[in-house]
Write a structure and sequence with these properties.
With 148 residues, the protein is mainly α. The protein has a domain at 40-141: Arc Repressor Mutant, subunit A (Orthogonal Bundle). The chain has helices spanning 10-36, 41-53, 61-68, 72-84, 104-147, and strands at 58-60, 88-91, 99-102. The longest helix is centred in the C-terminal third of the chain and has 44 residues, at 104-147. The chain starts with 9 loop residues before the first helix and ends with a helix.
Length: 148
């Protein structure tokens, strides 16, 4: 099996640097787009996580914490902020596993942001795919050489 600590080639370094640059560029775009609509980056990520992964339109706070890589205390504070802004409602029935749901206002913000984000992703896709292909192709060549 190939050594995971093996030195990288110049091509791999270039591909990794390009990939990381494209990711940072997209994150920069995403943050600015969210801020234009009055959301913080974290609020946008929370709303998107709820919309994209919430079963039945609701997501528990522990699940949201996992999706956002936040502590439960941090996500509780974020949920309170989102609720005060009118972006989510809280389901009080589930005290042991509180859940949040998007409001119509949040749905509209996400619709606007998603359109802009999809356009940006589609514009960036060729460069992202090229960087990923370079990394994948090199890895496949390593495995093929090891198997011989």
């Amino acid at each position: 099996m190939p050594n995971k600590h093996q030195a990288l080639s110049e091509i791999e370094y270039e591909a990794l640097a390009n990939l990381r640059y494209r990711i940072r560029k997209f994150r920069q775009f995403s943050g600015k787009a969210a801020e234009k609509l009055g959301l913080t980056r974290q609020e946008h990520q929370a709303l998107l996580a709820i919309k994209g992964l919430g079963a039945g339109g609701r997501m528990s706070l522990p699940d949201l914490a996992d999706k956002l890589f936040l502590s439960r205390a941090e996500v509780a504070e974020l949920a309170t902020s989102l609720q005060e802004a009118g972006h989510v409602t809280s389901e009080a029935k589930q005290k042991r596993r509180p859940a949040v749901m998007l409001t119509a206002q949040a749905e509209e913000l996400l619709r606007r942001l998603a359109s802009a984000h999809l356009y940006e992703i589609r514009e960036m896709a060729p460069e992202l795919m090229q960087a990923l292909r370079m990394l994948q192709d090199h890895r496949q060549m390593e495995v093929a050489a090891w198997m011989q």
